Amino acid sequence: QVQLVESGGGLVQPGGSLRLSCAASGFRLDNYDIGWFRQAPGKEREGIFCISGSPGLTWYADSVKGRFTITKDNAKNTVYLQMNSLEPEDTAVYYCAASSSAISTYPPPPSSYDIWGQGTPVTVSS
Fold it and tell me: Are 31 and 53 in contact (CB under 8 A)?
C-alpha cells in the first residue's frame, strides 16, 4: 500500500522547536519530489518546502527561510522537517506529499502532488 505518514506535531511555545517526520511505505521517496505543506484554520493549503528526488535540490518559502530545514534519510525512507524559532503564525496542520513528476513551479500547487499524508497538527502558543 502506497502511503505517507506524518508524525511529530504538537503544542510548543513560541521560540521552540519541533521535528516532523514523513515516513513513506510502498514506494521509494528518493524517486519522488517531496513537498511540505501547511494549512492554517480558514486558509488555503500552502507549500513551504520542496526537495527533489534527485539531485536533492530544495526550495523553501520566505516565511520559513532560516528557521525550517528539510532532510532525507533514504535508508529509513523518511523525510524530516526541522522547525526552529516557531511563531504563533506557524500554527497549522502540516502535510507531506510526494510527486512522481518533477516539480517546476514554485510555490508548488497542491495539485502537483499525487500522494498525501494525513497531516499532523502544530500549535504554537504560550
Answer: yes
